[in-house]
Amino acid sequence: MSSETKLRDAIARLAKSMYDRGLTVGSSGNISVRVDNGWLMTPTGSTMGCLDPSRISKLDDDGVLINGDPPTKETFLHRAMYEMRPGTGAVVHLHSTHSVAVSCLKDIDPKNVLPPITAYYVMRIGTLPLIPYFPPGDIKLANAVREMASKHHAVLLANHGPVVAGTSLEDAVYATEELEETAKLFLMLKNLNTSFLTDEQVETLKNKFPT
Length: 211
Ligand SMILES: [Zn+2]
Description:
Layout: H1 3-20, E1 30-35, E2 38-41, E3 57-60, E4 65-67, H2 75-84, E5 90-93, H3 97-103, H4 119-124, E6 130-131, H5 139-149, E7 154-157, E8 161-166, H6 169-189, H7 199-208
Helix pairs in contact: 1-6, 2-5, 3-6
The protein binds zinc ion (ZN).
């Protein structure tokens, strides 16, 4: 089995896993993986619950469709990450409930939306900036993501959802899941007197496990 076939199967398997656990619904959310001569990208209008590996879109280095169904209309979010972060192996974008809920809150710090609740969140995400709201298809959204992607592998689109880059497919999926669980914890802890990790504890983690 070629490595591309294995990657197609892995995308479908992990997408179904996220769908089955309610991390994505309907036809929302998309996944991409870097391959030798381009990208694999989940197709437009497809549901993560039952992707056909052979119909996953294959794009060349210029973003031109080589085979499979037409790619997600949100391909530009993925391209922004790959262009600005050369080590990126995969990108996940979800409309996951708790992350979207946090992205709608008025009193969050747009430079870093979530507090350091757990060590794993700090190790997998670290800092999460908020990208202001722009309507779908607005070129300003692509530009804003591109600008932020040069400094951060994970961003949160206001009133929309997270975009997370990883070194591999598993890395990007696990980081996105960690973000979603942390958003859930953050909402559970809201209005409760909470101990977050201290600045010193966060620094120690960031030095030991750079993201
Ligand atoms: Zn989206």
